[in-house]
Each structure stands twice: as structure tokens, then as C-alpha cells.
């Protein structure tokens, strides 16, 4: 799915939304699936025609590979499905399913409380208990609220790296103040990209929050795009990976 098409979808959502209202209600958790340590982030919605009310991203600490999630919450009961391939990602999360989404048989079945969540992860013959503790949250849908260190695990990744946004609150609002490039094999931050953004727009375009950084390839080189809110249509900043330095550098648009 082309990144410009994704931006166009985001623009339609932005123009259709209320200008004064925010978009994001996000809660971050850390805990375990069986004996494996995980980090999980969920964004709640009022709901789409498909019935999806939650989207998210999680990763196993040992592997550091982001796994996209979608699902439904009913009271305190939460069912979450994992995206299995690019085709499903485009159909469900980019374009949006036009039919009702059935979450029966999806791996996660959780009970969510104020401080965390418990339940199970089931796939085939595998069944593991899930224990999660809420560690951070942000909400810009009303009074601006941010608790803890909010690190958003974006869906974008390369063969060797994943990307995480650090979101903070200022007089200008809530936004991403720096982007971390994380080496998946080393589980280590190898670069931080800061944003000169006094209007606090970085990482706040009206998409799923996990889509505010996108990855694509140009000329055989990895490029990441960071979304910015503002001006109705929003904008992007592109960063290309330099083979010489092994770092991402801002590209001229």
C-alpha cells in the first residue's frame, strides 16, 4: 500500500472529524504471555462500521518485532486479533473493512481493569496466560491527559529495526517529541530523531497512532516518513537511511 495513499486516507478522516476534538485514547501495558515478556499498546475508538473499537501494536521483548492488532471491547471484555500478512493489513487497517469484523477465534481474550488486564492467548494447540500492567496513557479527546512515559510502537519496521515515538505534553498540546530507531537484534536504541515542532504536530495526523511513521523503499534504500498534523491535509517528513553512517537523515522533499 503506497504511503501517499495512506496519507490520503488519513486526510479524509481528518477533514471528516471535529476540528476541535482530539483523536487519541491510548493505553500502554507491559507484562507477559506465558513466560515471554511483552509490551502492548492499544488505541480505543467509538467504533467503525466494521465493529472494530480497538487497534494496537505489541511485541515480544526478545524479538522486538511489532505485531498489528485489532479487535472489540465490550464492557471490560476485550478480544484482539493479530494481523497475519500485508493483504490483511491493507484490508482491515488501511482501507478499512466494509463488512462486520468477527473476532471469534482471535488469539487474545482479556478482561481489562483500571490498572491492567488478564486473560489468555490461544492459537491452535498453544494456550498461554496473559498478565499485563498499565504503565502509561494519553488522551487528547477532551482535557489533555498524559500519564507515565508514553512510547508508541509503530507498525513500521525494517529487517533490522523497529521505530518508537516518545510522546510528551506541553503548552502546545500532546505530540511526538522524538523518534527512536531500535535495533531489533540488540533490543537497543541506536538513534533518536528530535523534532523542531513548536506547534506540537509530529505524530498526530488523524490515523491510527501506530501509522504515524511509515516505511518504504526508494532506490533500494529504506526510507521512513513521519506524519504531521496541521493544515487539514497534514504533511510528511522523510528520512533516508545512509549506508555510510548507518543513520537516518532528513531528506529534502
Question: How does this structure look, described?
Answer:
By secondary structure, this protein is mainly beta. The protein folds into two domains: 25-136, Lipocalin (Beta Barrel), CATH 2.40.128; 140-250, no CATH class. Helices cover 9% and strands 51% of the residues. It contains two helices and 17 strands. The protein has helices at residues 3-16, 86-94; strands spanning 25-33, 36-44, 54-60, 67-74, 77-82, 108-112, 116-123, 126-139, 145-147, 150-157, 161-170, 173-183, 188-194, 213-218, 221-228, 235-241, 248-250.
List the helices and strands and how they pair.
Layout: H1 3-16, E1 25-33, E2 36-44, E3 54-60, E4 67-74, E5 77-82, H2 86-94, E6 108-112, E7 116-123, E8 126-139, E9 145-147, E10 150-157, E11 161-170, E12 173-183, E13 188-194, E14 213-218, E15 221-228, E16 235-241, E17 248-250
Antiparallel strand pairs: 1-2, 1-8, 2-3, 3-4, 4-5, 5-6, 6-7, 7-8, 8-9, 10-11, 11-12, 12-13, 14-15, 15-16, 16-17
User: From the 3D coordinates, which CATH architecture of the largest domain would you assign?
Assistant: Beta Barrel
**Average residue pLDDT:** 89
Q: Could you give a short account of the major beta sheet? A: 8 strands, antiparallel, barrel
By CATH, the topology of the largest domain is: Lipocalin
Tally of DSSP β-strands:
17
What count of helical segments does DSSP give?
A: 2
Brief overview, please?
The chain is mostly beta strands. It has helices spanning 3-16, 86-94; strands spanning 25-33, 36-44, 54-60, 67-74, 77-82, 108-112, 116-123, 126-139, 145-147, 150-157, 161-170, 173-183, 188-194, 213-218, 221-228, 235-241, 248-250. A hairpin with a 5-residue loop joins strand 8 and strand 9 (145-147).
